[in-house]
């Protein structure tokens, strides 16, 4: 079985399954993974907490090798941990921190960072609202934003009901009716 991203049917990439004998059946399917669920108009990547220091640094390095990182999270312990990881890495990063969405938008538009690590669940407004505000602003619209949340992408949004069914006909744990 090979997991294939939706819409990637025409893309051919080498895969370990390609070494199978020709008469072995191969099933291609689309099982969602976090990267497919990220709203790429708002976020450049998504880190799900708990995140390892290694994964954090790998993600940061993909967007900038040095510069200013704005950490936006209301969990003071997480912000302190990120700062320690950045300092221990020896990379030339300067970290600033904000604990609310309004502070983050003001800080980023006043002095644009090279990268923003943005928590989704903030006390005053959610990370989507902050990302929308930053993407609409000419000063910050191209600054990479990495969402950081204890919840995987897509889990916080309510999915639309399946086509052909109304909310009245769908129940958890029951049949139709």
Key words describing this protein structure:
177 residues; alpha/beta; Rossmann fold; five-stranded parallel sheet; two-stranded parallel ribbon; globular; disordered C terminus
Give an overview of the whole structure.
This protein is α/β, with parallel strands linked by helices and 177 residues long. It has a domain at 34-149: 3-Layer(aba) Sandwich (Rossmann fold), CATH 3.40.50.2300. Helices cover 28% and strands 17% of the residues. The protein contains five helices and seven strands, in the order ββαβαβαβαβαβ. It has helices spanning 34-37, 53-63, 76-89, 101-110, 127-136, and strands spanning 2-3, 28-29, 45-48, 67-72, 93-98, 115-119, 145-149. It has a five-stranded parallel beta sheet with strand order 3-7-6-4-5, with helices on both faces. Strand 6, helix 5 and strand 7 form a beta-alpha-beta unit. Helix 4 runs parallel beside helix 5 (127-136). The protein is globular and about 60 Å long.
- Overall spatial form: globular
Radius of gyration: 20 Å
SS class: alpha/beta
**How many strand segments?**
7
Order of helices and strands: EEHEHEHEHEHE
CATH architecture of the domain at 34-149: 3-Layer(aba) Sandwich
| Total helical elements | 5
Q: What is the mean pLDDT? A: 79
């Amino acid at each position: 079985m090979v997991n294939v991203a939706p819409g990637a049917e025409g893309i051919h990439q080498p895969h370990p399954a390609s070494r199978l004998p020709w008469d072995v059946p191969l099933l291609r399917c689309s099982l969602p993974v976090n990267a497919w669920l990220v709203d790429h108009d708002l976020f450049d990547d998504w880190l799900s907490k708990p995140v390892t220091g290694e994964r954090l640094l790998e993600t940061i390095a993909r967007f900038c090798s040095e510069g200013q990182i704005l950490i936006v999270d209301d969990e003071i312990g997480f912000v302190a941990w990120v700062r320690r990881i950045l300092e221990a890495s020896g990379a030339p990063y300067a970290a600033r921190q904000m604990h609310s969405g309004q502070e983050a938008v003001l800080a980023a538009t006043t002095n644009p960072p090279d990268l923003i690590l943005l928590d989704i669940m903030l006390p005053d407004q959610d990370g989507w609202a902050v990302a929308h505000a930053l993407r609409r602003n000419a000063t910050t619209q191209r600054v990479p934003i990495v969402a950081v949340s204890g919840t995987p992408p897509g889990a916080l949004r309510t999915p639309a009901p399946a086509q052909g069914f109304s909310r009245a006909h769908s129940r958890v744990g029951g049949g139709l009716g």
